[in-house]
Design goal:
The chain has 2 domains: 10-115, no CATH class; 119-195, DnaJ domain (Helix Hairpins, Orthogonal Bundle), CATH 1.10.287. Helices cover 56% and strands 3% of the residues. With 197 residues, it is mainly α. It contains 9 helices and 2 strands. Strands 1-2 form a two-stranded antiparallel ribbon. InterPro entries: DnaJ-related_N (IPR021059), DnaJ_domain (IPR001623), J_dom_sf (IPR036869). Keywords: Chaperone. It holds the Pfam family DNAJ_related. This is Molecular chaperone DnaJ.
Length: 197
Amino acid sequence: MDDLSPALDLPDHLLVLLQENPEGCSEYALIQQLKRRHSTHIPNLPLTDKLVLFRTHFLVFNALYLLRDRLWAEASGHLQISPLHVQLLPYASATAGLCEQDALREYYLDLSNLKDTGEDDVERLLASFWTRMQGSDEKRAALELFELDRSVQPLTLELIKRRYRQLVGLHHPDRGGSTQRLQSINLAMEILQRYYR
């Protein structure tokens, strides 16, 4: 694969990748493609460190929201943004009406959230994520952590176990991974085993 031009900014790099993947892809897949193409806009470090993971995620989502705003202003496309599925869609004008405030957009476009977030803050964000996801949202949160989308493929316990083994191998502390991340993966597996038998 070709290197991405260093003259392009990160939103432009993402636009190139999304145009090459019209069916869309996950945030993780975008990050891996950026790394393979030697993008200088994201840290070229393993995502096993929580702070590196947060900063990489933040930079990508900041660029995605900037790109979505630009595409909308140019009336040239629409960007569907979520960690599991990012997709470039054709532009469709909206009818006039009330717009909901997009709190995620505001968060990711405020660069002070990147600058002011340290390792302890990331730990608290991860802990509060699981606390908020207890109850009816815990299944969805566990599927998101495993990067499994129910609409793309039928989910079975065997598929979930296979993904669990992949994630454990990737994030195990003996292989340079994070103990905290491994604990989150184990918790997600416990949750999913309750739903898929």
